[in-house]
Amino acid sequence: MNKVKVLVVFGTRPEAVKMAPIVKALKNDEEHFISKVCVTAQHRDMLDQVLKIFDIEPDYDLNIFQSGQTLTQITCRALSGLEGVIEEFKPDLILVQGDTTTVFSGALAAFYHQVKIGHVEAGLRSGNLYSPYPEEANRMLTGVLTDFHFAPTQTSKNNLLREGYDENKIFITGNTSIDALGWVIDKNYKFSEEALNNIDFEKKKVILLTAHRRENIGEPMENIFSAVRRAAEENKDVEVIYPMHLNPKVREIARKLFDGMENVHLIEPLDYLPFTNLMSKCYLVVTDSGGVQEEAPSLGKPVLVVRKETERPEGISAGTAKLAGTDGQVIYNELNILINNEEEYKKMANAVNPYGDGMAAMHIIDAIKKKML
């Protein structure tokens, strides 16, 4: 029996997390697959952290990261590097995940070499080409080139059908981020950041804040932080933890609005392992991140999404998340409800996770077998 040669391509921390279960599943099925991993290293340090956690040794490392890199530079370096990898390995299928510039570059490189493309986490749409930017466009451009669309939810599949894609090429799999979480959450986890170990997660209502989106920098982010500050000032049983994004503009806003507050902890960014375990211990999450909207509901944590649009509406529909926008008063009102109304809190905390059964990687592998063997 011929084996399918699969090249798994990723370049950032979120991609690595979500591709790790697939990398493991492919390696465990050597009867049907010959697989190799290529990292572009669009991110470097954050990517390496995840590779270490999941014990993944890339077969190819393009190491394209440069300080101050532009989207054009990332695209060109990734595309050029992938050409040599494809010519050497000669894969039957290239797998990409999500919405980064590496994803689009990987899909384009595959197309140029007439290699089949599998898009993991296909079909997410916000409806605004510039929000999230450039991710919304990356997903849509990748979709045009894709042979197998691995959609995490029915909503994602419906988006693809509405855009005219062949239903026989769309597979609902769940989200691999849920697979990954099952490997890393430890109820007895101890943080290297001692300030986190000193927080009483049982008695305090700990809000985990993440904010970094390009489109939120400026007044929207000031609104978000001001609302969180007000909630922290008025509720003494609240603690806020904000792992500050490395962007200097984001840090400037955070320090301006949070400095001097004893119950707001501004800490350095966390690796995947401590971050997910922190999320599992907290009371609720305020975020403009995409992946966190999937992970937090699977841990029973209500999510306030501080964006104007989200490409992950399933959490909103299921009741695990609320789209709060970037108006400070609206965010404060929603926070106040979750902090002080136990019934409303429980409705969100106990809502059914819409993002799958934790077996997404196996569903993807099975679909590939069905179509290519």
TrEMBL record:
Give the keywords, sorted.
Isomerase
Molecular function terms in GO for this entry?
A: UDP-N-acetylglucosamine 2-epimerase activity
Q: What name appears for this protein in its UniProt entry? A: UDP-N-acetylglucosamine 2-epimerase (non-hydrolyzing)
UniProt domain UDP-N-acetylglucosamine 2-epimerase: residue ranges: 27-369
InterPro entries, per the entry: UDP_GlcNAc_Epimerase_2_dom, WecB-like
Pfam families named in the record: Epimerase_2
Q: Which family does it belong to?
A: Belongs to the UDP-N-acetylglucosamine 2-epimerase family.
What EC number is given for this enzyme?
5.1.3.14
